[in-house]
Design brief:
Layout: E1 2-7, H1 13-23, E2 28-33, H2 45-58, E3 65-69, H3 74-79, E4 85-88, H4 92-95, H5 99-107, E5 111-114, H6 117-122, E6 128-129, H7 144-151, E7 158-162, H8 173-184, E8 191-195, H9 204-210, E9 213-216, H10 225-232, E10 237-239, H11 245-249, E11 256-257, H12 261-274, H13 279-283, H14 288-304
Parallel strand pairs: 1-2, 1-3, 3-4, 4-5, 5-6, 7-8, 7-9, 9-10, 10-11
Length: about 300
C-alpha cells in the first residue's frame, strides 16, 4: 500500500510514530508538508498556496490513497480527482478558527478520523475515533530519584509537571499556577510547578518519571499525548475535562478530571499524597501498535469501497 501524506509539520513526533507504525504493516509513503514558521499566525497565505500546489502535484503520483493530517491540509486532498481521501482532525482544526475548512473537507472525504469521542459528537460527519498512539517502549516507569538527578530537580518535595510552553494561551498556564498555589497551602512539603519546553522528545520520559503529577489545565484539546505518556509512566494526571482525557483516565488511580478550580486543587493534593498511578495498563489501548492496526483497518475499508 502506498500513501501520500499531507501534514502541517513532518517533524512532529506523533507523526513519526504514525509512519513507523504503518511502515511495520507494509505501508510506503510520501510526505508533503507545509513550509514556513509553525503556528496559526506564522504561516503566510503564500506558504499555504505553495503547499496546495505541491500537494496537488504529488497526488498525481502512483498512490493508493491520500491521507490529509489536520484540517488545513484537507483542501488539496479533496480537490485532487485520482485517489480516495482519509482526513485526520486533531482538535484545534475542528474547534478553532479553521473549523469551516475542516467540516467542508470532512464532508468530501472517504473516511474521517478524530482524536476523541467529543470530537466525533461535534462533527456532523461519520468518523472513526483513533487517538495518536504512545510508544510504550520509550514511555515506561523508572526510578524517580534517578530521574530527578538526570533532569536536575531536587530529590525532596513535590514536583508538578506542566508539559507545555507557558505562553500558549490554550494551555492556560495561569490557571495551573493558581491550582498549584492553592495545593501548596494544603501540603507540608514544598510544591514546585515545572514547565518543559525545547526538550528532545526522547528526554520526556525522564521528566515524567521525575514528577509527582502531571497538571493539564487546557481550555480545549483533542487527545493530548502528554496525558497518555504520563499514564504509560504511571504518573498521576490531574486535568480539565477536555478531549478524551476523561475517557483515558477512567478507572486510573490516583488521577482526576474536573472543570472546577476546587476540583483540580483537590485532585492535585490527592495525587501528590497518593504516589504513583496504575495508568500503564490503561495506556496499552492507545499504544502506537494499536493505533497502527486501526489506521490500517480504515485504509483497507476505504480501498475496499472503491
Amino acid at each position: 500500500m502506498r500513501v501520500c501524506n499531507l501534514v502541517t509539520n513532518e517533524r512532529a513526533r506523533f507523526y513519526d510514530l504514525q509512519l513507523d507504525a504503518l511502515g511495520r504493516h507494509g505501508v510506503d509513503h510520501e510526505t508533503v508538508a507545509i513550509g514556513g514558521k509553525r503556528g496559526a499566525d506564522g504561516r503566510t497565505p503564500l506558504a499555504y498556496g505553495s503547499f496546495y500546489l505541491r500537494a496537488l502535484r504529488a497526488s498525481l503520483g502512483e498512490f493508493d490513497l491520500v491521507h490529509a493530517n489536520y484540517g488545513l491540509t484537507g483542501p488539496p486532498a479533496v480537490l485532487q480527482p485520482r485517489h480516495p481521501v482519509v482526513l485526520s482532525l486533531w482538535g484545534t482544526d475542528l474547534f478553532g478558527r479553521y473549523e469551516p475548512v475542516s467540516r467542508f473537507c470532512a464532508r468530501h472525504s472517504d473516511a474521517v478520523i478524530v482524536m476523541s469521542p467529543g470530537m466525533a459528537e461535534a462533527l456532523d460527519t461519520p468518523c472513526e475515533v483513533i487517538p495518536h498512539g504512545v510508544d510504550l517502549d520509550v514511555f515506561r516507569p523508572a526510578d524517580r530519584t534517578a530521574a530527578r538527578e538526570r533532569v536536575g530537580w531536587p530529590t525532596m518535595g513535590h514536583q508538578v509537571l506542566f508539559p507545555y510552553p507557558p505562553d500558549r494561551p490554550v494551555k492556560n498556564y495561569p490557571r495551573a499556577q493558581q491550582v498549584v498555589a492553592a495545593a501548596r497551602d494544603r501540603l507540608d512539603a514544598p510544591v514546585e510547578l515545572r514547565t518543559v519546553q525545547g526538550v528532545p522528545h526522547d528526554r520526556m520520559p525522564d521528566y515524567m518519571n521525575a514528577a509527582d503529577a502531571l497538571l493539564l489545565t487546557s481550555d480545549h484539546e483533542g487527545s493530548p499525548n502528554a496525558v497518555k505518556e504520563a499514564m504509560a509512566c504511571n504518573l498521576p494526571v490531574v486535568a480539565t475535562d477536555v478531549g478524551d482525557v476523561a475517557e483515558r483516565l477512567d478507572g486510573v488511580t490516583p488521577s482526576s478530571v474536573s472543570d472546577r478550580d476546587q476540583g483540580l486543587v483537590d485532585g492535585l493534593v490527592a495525587a501528590l499524597e497518593g504516589g504513583r498511578s496504575d495508568g500503564r495498563e490503561a495506556a496499552r489501548e492507545v499504544s502506537v501498535e494499536r493505533m497502527g492496526e486501526r489506521l490500517i483497518d480504515v485504509y483497507r475499508r476505504v480501498l475496499d469501497g472503491q
